[in-house]
Design goal:
167 residues, alpha/beta, Glutaredoxin, 5-stranded mixed beta sheet, two-stranded antiparallel sheet, 6 helices
């Protein structure tokens, strides 16, 4: 079953790679429990089929990076980019996109989170395996407040601009 507005985020673990070690956070990959990370925060989430893929790299992630200040001005504490890739790939992709300090590049390497919210997308026939559908959502204190799911192969409703207009 696909997650809906009003649903709570599931118990799942996402991973993040840091380029600089800080107190309490090694370079990574670092594991983060979704429910604990989302508690008490307003989070804009974008999810997409894969790191370094054309639409994701040219349009989806850049839109959220470019609008990160506008999200913060509307009360969004964090922006998460979730993809079924490992933390090393997500970290490198985030660095190449200039996401540091703007968008957290959260790896769902085993698709645990993606499966639990019913957003898995089988692209095995195209050589990509199990991936995430393209969507954006607004989450407040772990509860989905907005959800924008694109049709397979489309990039129309999950844009940063669309989610910003819903806040």
């Amino acid at each position: 079953m696909t997650i809906q507005i009003g649903d709570k985020l599931p118990s799942a673990t996402l991973f993040e790679f840091f380029h600089e070690e800080t107190a309490g956070c090694s370079l990574g990959p670092n594991a983060f429990e979704v429910q604990k990370e989302a508690a008490g925060k307003t989070i804009a989430i974008l999810a997409l089929p894969g790191a370094y893929t054309p639409t994701c790299s040219a349009k989806h992630v850049p839109g959220f990076i470019e609008n990160s200040d506008a999200f913060k001005a509307k009360g969004v504490d964090e922006i998460w980019c979730i993809s079924v890739n490992d933390a090393f790939v997500m970290g490198a992709w985030g660095k190449s996109q200039g996401a540091d300090g703007k968008v957290r590049m959260m790896a769902d390497g085993s698709a645990e989170f993606t499966k639990k919210i019913g957003m898995e997308f089988d692209l095995t026939a195209r050589g990509l395996g199990l991936r995430s559908q393209r969507y954006s959502m607004l989450v407040q204190d772990g509860v989905v407040k907005q959800l924008n799911l694109d049709a397979p192969g489309a990039f129309e409703v999950s844009t940063a601009e669309k989610l910003l207009s819903q806040i």
